[in-house]
Write a structure and sequence with these properties.
Elements (H helix, E strand, L loop, with lengths): L1 E5 L3 H12 L3 E5 L3 H8 L10 H10 L3 E4 L3 H6 L2 E4 L14 H13 L6 E5 L7 H16 L9 E5 L9 H6 L3 E6 L2 H16 L18 E5 L1 H32 L3 H9 L20 H14 L5 H14 L1 H10 L6 E5 L14 H11 L3 E5 L4 H7 L5 E3 L3 H5 L4 E4 L4 H4 L3 H6 L5 E4 L6 H6 L3 E3 L14 H10 L2
Helix pairs in contact: 1-3, 5-6, 9-11, 9-12, 12-20, 13-20
This protein binds nicotinamide-adenine-dinucleotide.
């Protein structure tokens, strides 16, 4: 099929490359000429393992090209994906300006030569399917009112569930494909588009091998509104699971239990499942916070106060403050100290810094008079570029970051950090304090290497407090 994907960010680039790999002819469009320039040279605009190889393979298979203007590709396409950003407004509501501009542009470009499906892949609030239909129709009427009745199209909601860092694997071997649509022609076209994925009959790329237990993939066909709700509910639930593990971790610290043992114990219950139960310093990234806020906003618009969602955001905010609190417990005075951060990206295998805990921690420490050093395997140039005012001393590796530091904070659990020589690391520091924000290291190993070690929700760091920690952690970040 002929496909256009609008937006070449984390979702659009991966979606376009995967569809071309499956044999479709794809054009990816972005308004950012720098991104398109890079993509034309075969360089992904983001760090995502395997993406460069996938783009090369996609070019050989279905074919993929990159444009800044959507008009010509849209006219030639059977399916047009909208994968633009939907960042949060200060009110928590999703900013639909990019989506609206893309939808109008699609309308203006369409003609009556074929039936097209316009697919919302961006995460958008309930009702956005309707909005897109209206905007496309308005775009058609404004640009060529004479033929507007002859322009036929369907709208689908096809939420994306990929995880940055394993986006290619998730896109080629999904758990399910959700398609919301109101008419059968649209559903059929989407079924045709995704048939190779559903049947899993494509040859798997060497850089993303098919899992042995892979089964055919089900398409869940729903109404547009249900599909929109599925995406928000999935993210809200995943964030809730992490938040739950963090809340239990905070209780574990007080009662003398170990959260890793507790989560293993409950995760083996099939009704609960073991995924997303790792306690740490809180989730980040471009999706969870924005999507929960957007769902809260939608609920409020319909007169419902979504208390669990609200609590989920609050628990995460408290968790971000835990690092500062633990540093204060270990070092007492922070002013004038040097703290080294291992990891800046919001999670491993990505350079994405959106809502990354590292930024909030670094900002707060700097504000408190701390010298901050940092090392991240891929996200340092993005951090320098996107946060030029953040006075971080960027280091070449973990060892240089630890040099003369008073404490080391493991912020992102990059696999390479698991293999660090802890003894050598501790030997470089003024004070061998290690705050393991992701419970990456074995406490005993870290202690044997000479570290004064603290993880999250671990018995040995039993507090002497009486419930003041949570309030103190939240206040630490609020600057109260
Ligand atoms: N990043 C993820 O892990 C992820 C996962 C699932 C769903 N989503 C959702 O997918 C959507 C896209 O997310 P992302 O992380 O890829 O965003 P992104 O910010 O990385 O990319 C969006 C791209 O859209 C481009 N753009 C904006 N307006 C445009 C227009 N009118 N025409 C053409 N291009 C335009 C921007 O230049 C940018 O390159 C969001 O709604 C997000 O919530 C993201």
């Amino acid at each position: 099929m002929r496909v256009t994907v609008i937006g070449t960010g984390y979702v659009g680039t991966v979606t376009g490359a995967c569809l071309a790999y499956l044999g479709h002819r794809v054009t990816c469009v972005d308004t950012d000429p720098a991104k398109i320039e890079k993509l034309r040279l075969g360089e992904p605009p983001i760090y995502e393992p395997g993406l460069e190889e996938l783009i090369a393979a996609a070019a050989e298979r279905g074919g993929i090209d990159f444009e800044t203007d959507l008009a010509a590709p849209v006219r030639e396409s059977d399916v047009v994906f909208i994968a633009v950003g939907t960042p949060p407004l200060p009110s928590g509501e999703a900013n639909l300006a990019y989506l609206e501009s893309a939808a109008r542009g699609i309308g203006a470009a369409m003609d009556g030569s074929r039936f097209r499906v316009i697919v919302n892949k961006s995460t958008v609030p309930v009702g956005s399917g309707n909005l897109v239909e209206t905007l496309v129709r308005e775009g058609v009427q404004e640009s060529h009112p004479d033929i507007s009745d002859a322009v036929a199209f369907g709208v689908a909601s096809n939420p994306e569930f990929l995880r940055e860092g394993s986006a290619i694997h998730d896109s080629l071997y999904p758990d399910r494909i959700v398609v919301g649509a109101e008419d059968s022609s649209t559903v059929e076209i989407m079924r045709e588009l995704y048939r190779p994925l559903m049947e899993q009959n494509f040859s798997d790329p060497s850089f993303a091998p098919r899992p042995e237990a892979m089964q055919p993939v089900a398409m869940v066909a729903t109404t547009i509104t249900s599909a929109e709700m599925i995406k928000y509910s999935a993210n809200a639930f995943l964030a809730l699971k992490i938040g739950f593990a963090n809340e239990i971790a905070n209780i574990c610290e007080r009662v003398g239990a170990d959260v890793t043992e507790v989560m293993t114990g409950i995760g083996l219950d099939r009704r609960i499942g073991s995924g997303f139960l790792n306690a740490g310093i809180g989730w980040g990234g471009s999706c969870f916070g924005k999507d929960i806020s957007s769902l809260l906003h939608t609920a409020a618009e319909y007169g419902y106060h979504a208390r669990i969602l609200e609590a989920s955001l609050a628990v995460n905010k408290i968790q971000r403050g835990v690092v500062i609190q633990k540093l204060q417990e270990k070092l007492y005075i922070l002013k004038g100290r040097t703290v080294a951060l291992l990891g800046l990206a919001f999670k491993p295998n990505t350079d994405d810094l959106r809502d990354a805990p590292s930024l909030q921690i670094a900002e707060k420490l700097i504000q408190m008079g701390v010298r901050v050093r940092a090392y991240d395997p891929v996200a340092m140039s993005a951090c320098r570029e996107q946060h030029p005012d953040l006075r971080i001393c960027y280091c070449d590796d973990a060892l240089s970051a630890a040099e003369h530091a008073d404490a080391l904070v493991l912020v992102t659990e990059w696999p390479e950090f698991a293999g660090l020589n802890l003894k050598q690391l501790a030997g470089r520091m003024n004070n061998a304090v290690l705050i393991d924000g992701r419970n990456l290291f074995q406490p005993e190993t870290a202690r044997e290497a000479g570290f004064n070690y603290t993880g999250i929700g671990k018995a040995t760091q039993r507090s002497n407090g009486n419930g003041w920690q949570n309030a103190k952690a939240a206040a630490a970040l609020d600057g109260k």
